[in-house]
Amino acid sequence: MGRSRRKPLPKDSVETEVESLTHDGKGVAHVDGKATFVYGSLPRERVRFVYTSRQRKYDEGRTVEVLEASPQRVEARCSQFGICGGCSLQHQDPEAQVVSKQQAMLDTLQRIGRVEPVEILSPLLSESAWGYRRKARLGVRYVPKKGGTLVGFRERGSSFVANIDTCHILHPRVGELLPALSQLIDGLSIRHKIPQIEMAMGDSVCVLIFRLLQEPSAEDLQKLAGFGAQHDVAIYQQDGGLETVRPVSGEPLELFYQLPDFDLTLRFLPNDFTQVNTDINRQMVRQAVEMLELEPVDRVLDLFCGLGNFTLPLARQAGEVTGVEGDSGLVARARANAQLNHINNVRFFTANLYETLENEPWLQDRFNKVLLDPPRSGAQEVLGHLPRLGAERLVYISCYPGTLARDAGILVHELGYRLFSAGIMDMFPHTAHVESMALFEKV
Questions:
Q1: What is the tens place of the pLDDT at every residue in 267-294?
Q2: Which helix (H) or strand (E) is 389 found in, with range?
Q3: In terms of DSSP bridges, do strands 196-201 and 135-143 run parallel, antiparallel, or are they unpaired?
Q4: Which residues are known to be catalytic?
Q5: CATH 3.40.50.800: does it fit domain 135-201+206-253?
Q6: Which top CATH class is 14-73?
Q7: pTM of the model
Q8: CA 204-210-211 angle, 5° bins
């Protein structure tokens, strides 16, 4: 028998009422009793949509007309909103976005972890919901039929690059530079061999790393360097692994950001992980340190410590801090940052926190307070060590509510902690991305 063909999607639009919002920013409706997730809609709206996919348990669609608008609806600032994949919530009032994210975190904690905080923290908000992003990976595609090179985020659900003149969420030094970048690449001999540009920005220096799949000519390098000088950005090239990242001319520039509350300067390399939103990062670090209620006698363990973003502020107030990170390069930068800031009460170790840790020397010590800042996959593998280390107070920084909720359930139901407080940090306005912070105390 031949393989059965998938039924074609209905061509006609369908009218429906939207009930709520998913945690990734899609409207939830039910059409003929079947859950349908409608992109571009908001709760309490009546919309017309077209199907974009149909599955056995649910369908997906895209809004084509808003018949009755939600009070939360605003006009999107970007003309390519709905096409570009960089944002998903520009059509929702920023205050409503924050409320939705806070509720998404609380719902996930209850549904997955079966926990709820004693207190709900006030959200941490940027001074501006626009121009905040200092770290990004932009797609590049040479498309003669569209007039030349496109530079920007990729289209939603596609490998194509969105055709935008200005990106309102990128820092203006890059967000307003997209047409000039397109024109630059159009004039290069290898314009069809540049798949992406990575942006990394500190407090003063902005670096753009051009990924090159072909050797640039001397003239190409001259044009790239000239562009950087003209627009006050540092142009780097990458033609292989991370070790090949280098300036197209001259010496590498020093990237750094400051944490003024703690009189700290942290240096980093363009490819290092750093938070995308400087304003929120400063608020986040301040709140985390306050929540741990540090004393000079405290011994603190900072897991997934990176280049010392939390470790060094903690060391300003605690007796001793130990940072652990799986990336040896970040550990090297953390040690250098401690030396730069004349901090002597810190130790750093390189360890894969997802593997067996019994032989790690730092696990033989005692720590009464702990900070966790894991990636999206969470920190499940290290949680069992915390009670025997003597951890009485624990701050958990999360970039994904699902793993925070899972880990919170383990801490509360298996390891004898209570979830005292939790709240969100709007690190990525106009997206459905939810960053949060939670405080656990040993019962």
A1: 999 999 999 999 999 999 999 999 999 9
A2: helix 386-389
A3: antiparallel
A4: 399
A5: no
A6: mainly beta
A7: 0.93
A8: 140
At a CB cut-off of 8 Å and minimum separation 6, what does 226 contact? none
Angle CA(237)–CA(241)–CA(243) in degrees, nearest 5?
A: 75
Tokens of 251: 């010496």
d(CA 412, CA 423): 17
Q: How far apart are CA 383 and CA 418, in angstroms?
A: 14
Decide if 155 contacts 164 (C-beta within 8 A).
no
- Of the candidates 118, 22, 116, the one whose C-alpha atom is nearest the C-alpha of residue 408 is 116
pLDDT by residue (tens digit) across 129-157? Answer: 999 999 999 999 999 888 899 999 999 88
Same fold: 14-73 with 135-201+206-253: yes
Written as six digits, the tokens of 331 are 């550990």
Contact indicator for 36, 18 with CB cutoff of 8 Å: no
Smallest CA-to-CA distance from 267 within 277, 279, 255 is with: 255
**Whole-number Å distance between alpha carbons of 96 and 264:** 34
Given CATH 3.40.50.150, say whether it is the number of domain 98-128+256-442: yes
